[in-house]
Structures
1.
Amino acid sequence: MNHVYDPGREVSAPEVPGIGDRAGPRTEGHVDGRQGRRPGGNGDHPLHEGFDDVDLERVSRRPGAKWALADGGIAAWIADMDFPPCPPVLSRLREIIEVGDLGYPNWLGRTPLRAAFSRRMAERHGWAADAAPVREVTDLIQGVQLILHLATAPGDAVALHVPAYPPFLSSITASGRRLVPLPLHRDPTCGWALDPAATDDAVTRAGARVLILVNPHNPTGRVFTRAELESVAETARRHDLLVISDEIHADLGYTPHGHIPFASISPDAARRTVTLTSASKAFNLAGLRCAVMHVGDPDLLRKRDALPSDLFGAPSFLGVEAALAAWTPEGDAWLVTLVEHLGCNRRRVAEMAATWPGVDLAAPDGTYLAWLDVRGTGLGQWAGKAFAEGGVRLSPGEDFGPGGEGFVRLNFATSAGILDEALRRMDAVLRGTAA
């Protein structure tokens, strides 16, 4: 099997200069920007200032988990980007540090993020999300755990599409809830698809109380259509499910795959949905610990607000200020260039995957994650280890629960040069020529 699905675009298996050329020199992640282009694939790819000037030597010395735990290889696993934060964020953080006021913020019990979230949903997605039921959390996973704690009891069933981001799996099991896996299936028309009938059957048999929806989906990169979301909403209505909707990758969709907030599907969906999001993914701010949740169920919101205000922690002052700076016209201008750059990298990965015998890829509709099926390569359950030994650390599919076996997840949010070197090393592993 050697197939790449990319909506609206035919992908051939071209010769890719500098990748898979095992007689050529081993690059160190530097990019020649003299012509303003980078070679490769079906036509040159433009260089993007601020994104393509990240090089391997510098980034590999970073102390964060992504690179520090990469065991000397190229870090293409943890879903952080290799780029610096956008200029408005850096400017705001520098301003705060230079003023020297890191004391208690003047928020009067609520942060300005509530109104900022409401505006952003209206402007970007046409969803009139009231700011009143918005609450802050330190990160998205904390929000998921908080809602599971409030809305379910030990032993209750929680449905989740699989493969799934590992912290969702562990949040369910560590809290004593039962996982109800809802497998996505490979579809030649859309890449990865929901199965409404199987979902209905699984939810019925398990007596599920909650469904966790991840859209755009991690790890497959699928952005679900309105029709698909309507089918989920109908299942939720019929079984009276609370829906926890993770929409943290919403800003990272590729044309024509626009994001639709699940709570905007219908009044009923809005009333039964907790929407979770953050600036952290699109603007690379995960370490600043700040996210928001919009709680559509008034009873659930009252339950949350009846608890001591600091029981579940609070976002950091710098995290809130960084998110506010990101969610501005200046931040969105940077975001446009980011998505253009990621789109070039996405195309690059698809082109290369098409040359690898036994590898299958549905090019992601959104995110900067490529979910590679390597079951046809003979690497089997050792794929992640084999690539790591070849100099590239990927996320092994087994970490993503049922349906992840024989897959690896590649993070392509890096410079052209680093990505090209990662793909060259993967090519050597797949062709049996790794040093």
2.
Amino acid sequence: MTDAEFKKLVLEKLQDIETRQDEIYNVVRAIEHANNIAKSELDKQSVRVAKIEGKLKQTGKSLLEGIDIEDVSNL
């Protein structure tokens, strides 16, 4: 193998490595994006649950007005 052939082979291998590195980088970015979306969706659901919980508590208080709270268990 001549010196020129060796250099060409090394450059080809480096190009392959660079291409793989770019592909891996893009996959990592896609995973990061998916994780951010999932976290946002989870946060959105948490807010919705908190709102529903508040409405239920408010409704419960309205229904129990005038009723002795000791007569009702687990509130």
